[in-house]
Amino acid sequence: MVDELNPAERLANRLRATLKRDAKRLLAAGPPTLPMLMVGPQVPDDARVQEVLDLCMRVGEVQLSSGESVAVVTDLMLRLADACGLPAVDVDITFTSITICCHRGNAATPVTSMRLVKYKTLDLTRLANVDRVVDDLESGRLSLRAAARALDEAIDARHPYPRWAATAGWGLLAGAIAVLLGGGPVTAVTAFLVTGAIDRIGRLLNRWGLPAFFQQVMGGLLATTVTIGLFAAGLFPPGTRPSLVVAASITVLLSGLSVVGTVQDAISGYYVTAAGRVAEIALLSAGLLTGVVLGLKFGFAVGIALDVAGSVSVSVGRFSLSLLLGAVAAAGYALAGYAPLRSLVVAAGAGALGWGVYSTLNEFTGFGPVAATGVAAVVVGAGAGLLRRTSQVPSLVVTLAGITPLLPGYTAYRGFYQLAVEGLSEGLVTVTLALATGLALAAGVTFGEILGSPRRRAAAVTADDSEPANIPGGQ
């Protein structure tokens, strides 16, 4: 007796027979002639991706908090991720935060990580050690785990020398600037001591959590009122100009502003970060202006006025001395920033070079101060770009230290004085001149680094060769 099958069972039997027949045909035909469609790229597992992204984020945080531009930080993070096996990575930096995303095609979901950037004390030795870790990882001398341990040691390491040495560096910078502006030994020693006191008080206020704006107010106020008190006590000999002490202290306070990084971000197209840095610089400059003006008003109330000092004139006989002072000022800044000791000589050379170019153009060839400052900054930036690939000295040491003697501390003080005494119109003109000098410094350094950096030139040539020209009517 034959069992009757229901329609569902008959359909299932037909499907099984069809599948068997098709399978036999495929096996008899041999391997497929077309490659199999890949769903997505081969990527490391989630743990590996997280380790790489965390390493990139921590390196980027150190770089950004040290004042590097967004373009440099982004390029470094992308190179680091590529060296660790993650080529498809995007980096987004917005002034106070870093976001990095690893794309994994259709094979897996992307992995994104974000970190807030908190400001730390400028430590150029830490920056150099982190750069060394990145170089060792890219060259294969360190594995990912070993690089992470080395990065921990570099970040958590103590400063290379005591805090009083950094204070002495700031004082050395102020003393050299005071003599560059035409002061004598008494003015230089006074600027050294006043700036050292401002640094120690500012460190105490920072421990108390006082915002940076009020720290700038206190810095400008202390520089002015302490100088007024010393002048009233008769500690300045006749013929000296105590206002140079204030101008030198203002130069030190201006040196902490990241004007170079701001202009570099704007030129490179990172407008959001540049706008944030512009707002920060404007706020801190306003705090410095407030402190100086309050100090000058106090001096007027007690019958003491710190007149604007005359500008310095670099004669032929004074030219060699000015080069030495420029070198001392740059080395003082590098020392205050905890730069490696071996880089102090390079920083001093950059300061002497920048001041020498500026003095030659401004005094002996008829260039204006703004144009001479810009050309000198280009020379310093070009030297930093060349050292980026040929030396272990961080380029940031060269750029920041090299332009420090050229900061418009005297011009800024003269503008503040005019705002407090002579009226709004005269003061705004002089403050605008100081702003133009600062922009010339930043733009000149940026252009010089582009000219002197082999990597950037090579990248530009590669981009031009790899992308077709956008010709109207062309294919």
Largest sheet: 3 strands, antiparallel
Q: What is the distance, rounded to the nearest whole angstrom, between the alpha carbons of the first and last residues?
A: 77 Å
Give the low-pLDDT segments. Answer: 33-40, 456-475
SSE order: HHHEEEHHHHHHHHHHHHHHH
Number of helices: 18
User: Portion of residues in helices?
Assistant: 55-70%
Strand order of the largest sheet: 1-2-3
Mean model confidence by pLDDT: 83
Shape descriptor reads elongated
Portion in beta strands: under 5%
- Structural class from helices and strands? mainly alpha
The total beta strand count reads: 3
Please provide a written account of the structure.
- With 475 residues, the protein is mainly alpha-helical.
- 69% of the residues lie in helices and 4% in strands.
- It has helices at residues 7-29, 46-65, 70-83, 124-139, 144-156, 163-180, 185-207, 212-232, 243-254, 259-268, 271-301, 316-336, 344-364, 369-390, 395-403, 409-421, 424-452, 454-466, and strands at residues 89-93, 97-102, 111-116.
- The protein has a three-stranded antiparallel beta sheet with strand order 1-2-3, covered by helices on one side.
- Strand 1 (89-93) and strand 2 form a beta hairpin.
- Helix 7 packs antiparallel against helix 8 (212-232), helix 7 (185-207) packs across helix 9 (243-254) and helix 9 crosses helix 16 (409-421).
- The termini are far apart.
